[in-house]
Design goal:
The protein has 250 residues and is of the alpha/beta class. Helices cover 25% and strands 29% of the residues. It has helices at 59-78, 113-122, 162-172, 192-206, 216-222, and strands at residues 4-11, 14-21, 27-34, 85-89, 105-109, 130-133, 147-153, 173-184, 225-232, 238-245. The strands form two sheets. It has a seven-stranded mixed sheet, sandwiched between helices. It has a three-stranded antiparallel sheet with strand order 1-2-3, with no helix packed on it. Bound molecules: S-adenosylmethionine.
Amino acid sequence: MTIEKFGKIQVRGTILQLQQVENGQESKQVTSSNLMSNRHSHTSGEVPDLPYGSIAVGYDDGMRFFERRLFGHRRRKLIPQASGNVLEIGGGTGVNLQYYQGLASLVLTDPDPLMIEQAERKLRPGAFPVRFEVVSAEALPFPDGSFDTVVATLVFCTIPQPAKALAEIRRVLRPGGKFLFMEHVRPRPFPLGLLADVLTPLQKRLCGGCQLNRKTLETVEAAGFQVVQRELSRFDLILSGEAILSHTEP
Ligand SMILES: C[S@@+](CC[C@H](N)C(=O)[O-])C[C@H]1O[C@@H](n2cnc3c(N)ncnc32)[C@H](O)[C@@H]1O
């Protein structure tokens, strides 16, 4: 029996009506209409300079080994926990797109237009609307309480003002919403933490501002989130989990 699914995605202001035929292999575009007038600006909000430049070119190739060994299985576990209307910050080349399931909608953001271009190319026809926006996490152009889930993976190592970004995440999450994260953090065991401190200036220069010694768990908690689920890898190097808004303001 043929199962047909219809979906909509928005790419650069164009809504594509998609028909997916599941027991055949084809997936085809049946109509498209330009909705520029409804479009949220690609450059809405305050787009900061990327102080260390773009790392978009060659990013996926450069990360392949680390994805296989360190991050891929954590994404597979974490990202399907996103639900409802979802915002991803610092979404980069869209590595997480393949893991989202059954959402109401997804807005994938990043301040680097070259990253967003690659993410757009990764998008495959799906059952929920996806929108891309070039914005930084410190100035999200979305109303208060407009998302059920916010996702950040490998972003808090790079964001110049993490506390400001977390305040924005708090603001755009609806009450009861969740914040899902996967980050590499400053390892606790001696001498790895020290090594991370020493290597960070070089890492920042070579990897678009990425810092190896961010204490992201502490920063998330200090921003008024309650971490309700967390996993730390060997050597406490990779942190992933879920946080909800705590009742006390930071
Ligand atoms: C290491 S990449 C991670 C990309 C992606 N989230 C992933 O899991 O592969 C870090 C990303 O953070 C983005 N970034 C840099 N400054 C940012 C900011 N102020 N707000 C949000 N994202 C930022 C970069 O453009 C880049 O795409």
